[in-house]
């Protein structure tokens, strides 16, 4: 099975969104370069960020998100983001009424079941878990192999935390990747077990 990676852009003080679930300038680095990151033409990054992010994105088979992210993005219109094959949505509720059952989205109750479903779907490819409450729950359950952060030079006064409401200590190994891009610092930490 592929690795489980917790991932997200984050402020220097640990937030993935403000109190209104808005990322503000956290994604500015994704549009501030001159190298297209995908076929949309909307995402352009520095060459350094491209060389780090594109190979990572190409390895992702499944993304795990919470229902709140799914609702905020309107389910990405039924198309998984960034060319990912499947999205597993952690939710106590079923798919929204009128949702296309053929869309590659899977609604699963609980993080352990979500990661198990994602690993089956991903095979030997990566399972990406969105940072925030669900990511923190997956970390607390001992299911995360690696933490990746795109740290953006902004400070939020409050908001949604990168690790959600994790209230216990979790040790990460020293970062094995530290890359400076334009308006972003890419970090990768293996999780200590």
Reported by name, the CATH topology is Dihydrofolate Reductase, subunit A
**What is the H level of CATH, i.e. the homologous superfamily?**
Dihydrofolate Reductase, subunit A
Q: On the 0-100 scale, what is the average pLDDT?
A: 95
Shape: globular
Instruction: Give the strand line-up of the largest sheet.
Output: 7-6-5-8-1-9-12-11
Query: Total strand count, please?
Result: 12
| First-to-last CA distance | 17 Å
Oligomer: single chain
Query: H/E element string?
Result: EEEEHEHEEHEHEEEE
Q: What Rg, in angstroms, do the CA atoms define?
A: 16 Å
**Structural class, judged by helices and strands?**
alpha/beta
Low-confidence stretches: none
Q: Give the helix proportion (percent range).
A: 10-25%
Beta content: 25-35%
The biggest sheet, with number of strands, parallel, antiparallel or mixed sense and barrel status, is: 8 strands, mixed
Question: Layout of SSEs?
Answer:
Elements lengths: L3 E8 L3 E3 L17 E2 L7 E2 L1 H13 E7 H6 L13 E5 L14 E4 L2 H12 L3 E5 L2 H8 L5 E7 L7 E2 L15 E5 L2 E7 L3
Parallel strand pairs: 1-8, 1-9, 5-6, 5-8, 6-7
Antiparallel strand pairs: 2-10, 3-4, 9-12, 11-12
């Amino acid at each position: 099975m592929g690795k489980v990676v917790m991932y997200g852009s984050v402020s220097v003080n640990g937030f993935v969104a403000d109190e209104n679930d808005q990322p503000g300038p956290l994604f500015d680095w994704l549009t501030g370069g001159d190298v297209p990151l995908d076929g949309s033409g909307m995402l352009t990054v520095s060459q350094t960020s491209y060389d780090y992010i594109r190979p990572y994105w190409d390895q992702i088979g499944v993304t795990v998100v919470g229902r709140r992210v799914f609702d905020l993005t309107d389910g990405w219109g039924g198309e998984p983001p960034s060319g990912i094959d499947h999205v597993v949505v952690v939710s106590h509720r079923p798919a929204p009424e009128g949702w296309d059952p053929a869309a590659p989205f899977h609604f699963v109750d609980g993080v352990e079941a979500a990661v198990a479903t994602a690993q089956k779907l991903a095979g030997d490819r990566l399972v990406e878990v969105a940072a925030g409450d669900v990511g923190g729950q997956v970390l607390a359950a001992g299911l995360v192999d690696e933490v990746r952060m795109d740290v953006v030079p902004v400070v939020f006064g409050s908001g949604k935390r990168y690790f959600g409401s994790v209230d216990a200590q979790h040790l990460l190994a020293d970062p094995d990747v530290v890359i400076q891009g334009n308006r972003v610092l890419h970090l990768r930490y293996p999780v200590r077990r």
